[in-house]
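Progress narrative, Year 2. Work on DUF2804 domain-containing protein from Streptomyces clavifer advanced from sequence curation to structure prediction during this period.
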Amino acid sequence: MATHEHEITEPVDLCLPDGSLNPAAVGWSRKPLHRANLRGWGRTKRWEYWCVTTPTHLVALTVSDLDFLALNSVYVLEYGPGGREFECSSVVPAGRGVHLPDTVAGAPGSEDVVVGPARPTGGKVRVEIRDENAGTRLRARCLTPDRLPLEADILVARPDGHESLSVVVPWSEQRFQYTSKHTALPAAGRVRIGSELLKFGGGDDGTWAVLDHGRGRWPRTVDWNWGAASGRTDGRTVGLQFGGRWTAGTGSTENGLCVDGTLTKIGEELDWHWSANDLLAPWTVRAPSSGQVDLTFTPFHNRSAHTDAGLIANRTDQCFGHYNGRIRTDDGTEIAVEQLLGWAEDVRMRW
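Result:
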């Protein structure tokens, strides 16, 4: 089922000279083609979020500029009962010293991003996103809540021809978001926590990276669902990318399947069902019209964050777990999804 949405195949500016949304930018693409030439202050939000899943751990790095502050973080989760979980976050008033480029940070032809001191102390965080010939290099340093030094060094590969999903979501001429989601990218690296060294990747061990690149001008409050997963299933390399609620009524969705590096764009809104009272109960995600997505997501952990800091209030429940069910690509190929590791989240944001 081909999407009704307009496919963009040439580079385009996100904004007109006055800072409003460029009508020619509305659509989706199989690789990042938008230049986010944003103007204005207060409603502009920029971020790079990388999440790397291994068979035993998950590592997520965030660099964000929300105009009146920047929030940069390192998150680590060890799966299983009693597994470690911690987050090191640094708030930078007015976003001083944090600059995110108009295109995907660390990609060929774009800018590298480096935030925080080289030897962070006192709650500060160092994050680096750099272009290398073999891919994107992710590095991070911080002190854990137990004051152990943490160092992460991860290389995310760029397989030739691997497609991603980039979409412009238009609420209005003045409020819009450009998102570029990259799934099922092979990764390898290490994380040192104190004297303990974790190594992953370097072979077919099930280490995958996902990128959420965002640039836009947002309303004051918004709710969303986001789900993603990567891995091998039914003899294929599969990346799942799903969104919900925040795109409703805009004519755009951020829904797609990446199978062996080829993108299937899904233009319909998906049906999400989950229990707000029991977030670790199974979720379902389905494509009601096309039937291209019929999945059950079973969480094993909820990363819950509820904050109210005046200008920013956030309620995030990001559940990590496994997807099972089936998907169908544009060419009609049905793929059985079995224990695909990823996440699904329920977020309410005031910012």
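The chain has a mean pLDDT of 95. The CA atoms of residues 14 and 79 lie 39 Å apart.
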